[in-house]
Design goal:
alpha+beta; about 180 residues; 2 domains; 5 strands; three-stranded antiparallel beta sheet; Arc Repressor Mutant, subunit A
């Protein structure tokens, strides 16, 4: 890729990160590769140069979304990145800007969906072979969360079921508490 194509890739990444707060590395990479504008190696180069240049910042940790195994990077644009993007954004052609707005909107929805359901587990400090599990979801403006202990060998199943069926579980719980037969 030429230097101008790398620069364009960096501008696209800055735009997407600024306009989709809370985007993860995985979501950002998937969106960039989906466009066929950047391949994995050039995406990685652009991303790493933006991080090294303090134009993007990353927070590493377990987001509880199940998006990746282990820790995930949540990306945010720095003030320096915002300043550069502000200077350059007006020079983007309408077709590129239209694509970036659509891609950013899709990422915003994906971030919202991913962050609506969380599941965390950590080994119990007081019981060998047990884990403390915390589950939460936000649906239709209603928050639901619970914490309990589960055997360590059952944790993965509990977290996967919650991520797949959290809305149903929360609705059933609320319906039960309100003595309703159907949701």
């Amino acid at each position: 890729m030429s230097n101008s194509e790398i620069s364009d890739g960096k501008i696209h990444i800055l735009y997407l990160v600024k306009n989709a707060p809370g985007v993860s590395y995985q979501m950002l990479m998937d969106k960039c590769l989906e466009s066929l504008y950047l391949d994995f190696f050039n995406f990685s180069r652009c991303y790493n140069e933006l991080i090294a240049g303090n134009l993007l910042d990353k927070e590493v940790g377990d987001t509880g979304t199940g998006e990746v195994i282990g820790s995930n990077e949540t990306i945010k644009i720095t003030r320096g990145g915002e300043a550069i993007l502000e200077d350059i954004e007006s020079t983007l052609n309408l077709q590129t800007l239209g694509y970036l707005k659509k891609a950013a909107s899709e990422l915003q929805n994906e971030v919202r969906e991913k962050n609506a359901v969380k599941a965390f587990a950590k080994p119990c400090a007081d019981e060998l072979g047990m884990c403390d599990v915390t589950l939460s979801t936000v649906k239709d403006g209603r928050s639901f969360s619970c914490s309990f202990k589960v055997k360590a060998d059952e944790v993965d199943n509990v977290l996967a079921r919650w991520r797949a069926q959290s809305g149903e579980f929360a609705d059933a719980f609320v319906a039960n508490m309100l003595n309703k037969e159907d949701k």
